[in-house]
Amino acid sequence: MNQTQHNVIINFIWSIADDVLRGVYSRGKYRDIILPFTVLRRLDAILEPTKDAVLEIHQKLNEMKIDNQAPQLRRISGYVFYNTSKFTFKKLLNEPGNIRQNLENYLDGFSSDVQDIISKFKLRNQLETMEESNITFPLIEKFCTSTLNLSPNPIVDKSENLIHEGLSNLGMGYVFEELIRKFNEENNEEAGEHFTPREIIKLMTHLIFDPIKSKIKDGTFLIYDPACGSGGMLTEAEHFAKEINPKANFILYGQELQPETFAICKADMLIQGGKPENIKYGSTLSNDGFPDVQFDFMLSNPPYGKTWKIDQPAIVEKKEIIDSRFKIGVPRVNDGQLLFLMNMVSKMKTKDDSPLGSRFVTIHNGSALFTGDAGQGESEIRKYLLENDLLEAVIALPNDLFYNTGIPTYIFVLSNKKEVKRKGKLQLINVTDELFFAKMRKPLGKKRVEFNAQHIKTITKLYSDFGNNEYSLILDNEDFGYYQITVHQPERDKNGNLITDSKGKQKSDIKKKDIENIPLKDDIESFFKTEVLTYVPDAWYISKETKVGYEINFAKYFYKYQAPRSLAEITKDILAVEKETDNLLKEIIEA
């Protein structure tokens, strides 16, 4: 199903909200009804062909007084879920006067995994409002229309002519995520919090799998996203991996904090026939859903610029880090993005566990590259990544690529089994030039640019070629490290005499203390002699105070000088603005 057909479905579902919910719910609250009913209608449509057979076997098992019916009912339904009520969406319309009671009976008939989904949507809390405003019947009626097919199975007529294509799990992911984006925009929320544009996910999957695709043999591989949202990254990764080796088995794992998107993701796992128990609810940072599992492949777009204060008690106790995942160091409490990265590092398979080791890609903003001084949590994390040779590449993405932010963002590529040519190296790739993206005809939120298939191919080739050019630089890991020393100067009294402590040592003047960052490849003594003592002959530093820090400064390597605009150009623009302002004032006065 192509993007145009997806848009038809999205617009139709949006129209249901406008037609039925207007006046009862604010537009910002439409999602509380539309998202769960979209999920339920898709589940309902999938179960329709086997519904009668499920009810028949359910009745027989009841007569035989068999309590554990789940295995049999799953086998008959053809999925890992089922519904034992006598109702379907369409049958609910047969008794308009009892629709509230029958809808509750229908919801109660779902198996336990679906009950968890219904619970996370808090759907039962809405039933009374829906009944009081008489919208239950028209809402279900709209979802049962013959013009909408939410089932993965195509609809054909008696002559087997196609009426509606089926909506694949991947396609349903597009629909859900676009609906979430639209609803969030209506609610003035961050539209991209759980939604990464699919072309970025495609790029990420190429970066994960392309370097080792010839090594993905038959077997089982685990794929993980610690901030999985509605599951788009997991679904796309599995789809891509299956194309590499259809015989291999890929098992998906994810965790999500937001109940609504968790419910959507879990529903997708149910429909795919995956393991819904592998989608965990709750905070990855304070309540790790997979404490004893290591993964082959991981990908994520964790929240950045978001506080982790609510998770802090589970991670730090009296300034001591108590969670082993984060023992290297923790970032400042107002931005937890690097905690997600270190969570993934902790779940990498060792070379002994897997011949491929583990690979993962994750998206961050610029803060992850340079925030934090030497010895502070952010720098200590970068130090760990580089000194343990885990970081393969950092890719600077164009601005305005995401729906909720126009700020600079970066893809990190990590592996604990690098190719020989990459050992001890970090590749910086800059794809912020217009050569690597296209401007959109119509912006979506703050998203104004996009990647097409050729752009993805070009960026992936830059990475795989591993060469030095205008857009790619190969540097040693230690090029990003520095010694940080504290430069001391002697304190003097009001008469100009040096002040000493009780041991006769010169006292350092607190007001004149300074910090110097010295590249790791430089000799500290030589640097101090030429860059400090030349200008401050009586200065000194104390070796034991020396710290080692790391930062990744893209501007240092890819800065391009832009000459200032000419005075004539600036004057022309100012005069144009003045003229425009004069005309506006004239219109106001004359009005």
If you had to describe this structure to a student in words, what would you say it looks like?
With 591 residues, the chain is an alpha/beta fold. The protein folds into 3 domains: 3-167, Ferritin; 177-466, Rossmann fold; 481-555, no CATH class. It has 21 helices and 18 strands. The chain has helices spanning 3-21, 31-47, 51-63, 70-77, 89-92, 99-108, 112-121, 127-132, 136-143, 169-186, 198-209, 232-244, 259-272, 312-315, 337-345, 367-370, 377-387, 453-465, 524-533, 554-558, 567-590; strands at 155-156, 162-164, 220-225, 249-256, 279-281, 297-300, 316-317, 320-321, 359-365, 391-396, 409-415, 425-430, 438-444, 447-450, 472-476, 481-487, 514-519, 547-550. The strands form 5 sheets. The protein has a 9-stranded mixed sheet, sandwiched between helices. It has a 3-stranded antiparallel sheet with strand order 17-16-18. α3 (51-63) packs antiparallel against α4 (70-77). The two termini are 54 Å apart. The relative contact order is 0.07. The mean pLDDT is 91.
